[in-house]
UniProtKB/TrEMBL annotation:
It comes from the Eukaryota. It comes from Platanthera zijinensis. Pfam families: TAF10. Keywords: Nucleus, Transcription, Transcription regulation. It is found in: Nucleus. Its main location: nucleus. Belongs to the TAF10 family. The keyword tRNA-binding does not apply. One of its GO terms (molecular function) is RNA polymerase II general transcription initiation factor activity. GO terms for cellular component: SAGA complex; transcription factor TFIID complex. This is Transcription initiation factor TFIID subunit 10.
């Protein structure tokens, strides 16, 4: 018996759109016709933002812990 999911989750809303990355790369003077490089920059940017947000959350949780004493 094969299982067919009725709901499919899509994480595409978590990705930075190519047009947005190309816009900011263009504003900085970077022009590259290769879409793979644009997407590599998008992934690196997404990882950086994710790490900053994670560090901020850990810091807030630590501050709350200190204030509870």
């Amino acid at each position: 018996m094969d299982y067919t999911p009725t709901v499919r989750l899509s994480l595409s809303f978590l990705q930075i759109p190519d047009e947005l990355v190309e816009h900011y790369l263009g504003r900085s003077g970077f022009q590259c016709p290769d879409l793979r490089l644009t997407r590599l920059v998008a992934v690196a940017t997404q990882k950086f933002i994710s790490e900053v947000a994670s560090d901020a959350l850990q810091y807030v949780q630590f501050c709350i812990l200190l204030l509870s004493f």
